[in-house]
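ok so I'm stuck.
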Amino acid sequence: MLKRYATILILISSLLVSSAAVGAQDAQEKVDLDAVNKIKEEGTKRSQVMELLSYITDVHGPRLTNSPNYIAASEWARQKLAGWGLQNARLEPWGPFGRGWSLEGLTVNQIKPGFAPLIAYPKAWSPSTRGTVRGEVVYFDAKTEAEMAAFKGKLKDAIVLLSTPAEVKAHFTPKATRLTDEDLLSLANADEPRGAGRGRRFELTEEQKAAAALANKKWGMIYSEGAAVVIEPSGRGGDGGVVFVQGASMPAPAEASYESRPRPWAKGAVVVPQLVMAVEHYNRLIRARQKGAPVQLEINIASSYHDRDQMGYNVIAQIPGTDLKDEIVMIGAHFDSWHGGTGATDNASGSSVVMEAMRIIQTLGLKPRRTIRIGLWSGEEQGLLGSRAYVAQQFGKRLDSPAQPSDPNAIPQYELKPAYEKFSAYYNLDNGTGKIRGVYMQGNEALRPIFRAWLAPFKDMAASTLTVSNTGGTDHQSFDGVGLPGFQFIQDPVEYGTRTHHTNMDVFDRVQEDDMKQAAIIMASFAYNTAMRDKRLPRKSMPGLPEAHSGQ
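replied:
not stuck anymore, here's the structure
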């Protein structure tokens, strides 16, 4: 208890010192409080954010890139944005992606010992089984390459249990949490990241490399022998019926780079049928099998590929600016999702928030000086594909791989477009339903007095923290990676990593309405403030790019 009180006193002292240090600068930053108050009123009393969320999730459902659901949902979003009066609302192609996929039907039952329906979901791009597959399971429990030899000839047309049982423990801490004062203080006191914007390799440990190599060889054997269907338990600690499920697995050469690995969405890719099962149900099968009981299942996966149009599409629309209309402010979120649930917290929530922010600005008749543009991205779940392609087409690109540069010590090279210098900022939302608590400044300390002034009207909404830290894993990286100001807001985690992220429980009912309203209000305010500044936002220095400037 004493430690908590001491931490809170430190937080208060830190905020007072910080306020004194930047007070003079804050005073120079213009904030149109009249417009902010109108945004608050519209976003609180006449919000449409949950109605938007329900259309995206309940009506259109999961939105795997290039699936019929994604195309229908994106056309709905385009029409909605145009109906509000936004200009040039369109589905903008960003480049070849590959085939879409949809699930048409599923049966997964235990037949012996005793009948039981089982909780399981096909991985995305899993093909249909050849009708209903019935038979005893084969537990492919080889722990070394030498042990794999014992399974030669046994996997053809088999129902294969691939992984070892997963440990399940009771939960003595809540699934849902919000950021504490201590968490926010830690973020506020974070050191400036080193090498911001530089590509860095992610290095596996030797043990992880060996495990990955063995798993790849096991998948290679499964494919070469032609298993009927492969079953794995839900990963990432999913239990209690929560199933984490993403895309189908394919074997790849050990030396293959991330970019060159085979993709199940590629046209003509041959994929083995695959399921992810609730861990408790999977473990039950393994235990019965180990005790010598005959474990028999019946499985029928009915799925379809959609490869008529291989192109990927983003949804783009804008509110035109006035005297600085050739300069751009963007807000965005990824519109695609995985398929286990309806993609509510990942990321219909973010998409609804940025759509609502655009509606608020347009409905109020605010006249931003710069053009405010919305981007709803596809292909985010497959590697930020839609937003990376958009940035490359509109503003510029890095000529070597940002994920795995050929020489991490070399100065990166870029190819920049004329519009690069006309871009001010991009704001992203993609960390679930949690309310906004502040901003990750991505190593750009020059933004602190600006963002502090913009957050000041929202202290009563619990949003006041600024951290120089980076955060990753979503579409702001596409902008930040080429030196453009791109930001993700700090959000309360709520149930994101424990219950909803990429799971069958990622549905409308897990989204918190008050958090969504708060986020849309702050998103609209940041977009409007950025559009009204005399100067564009300052940029951080990055090797290989023009000198950072103040936006003059």
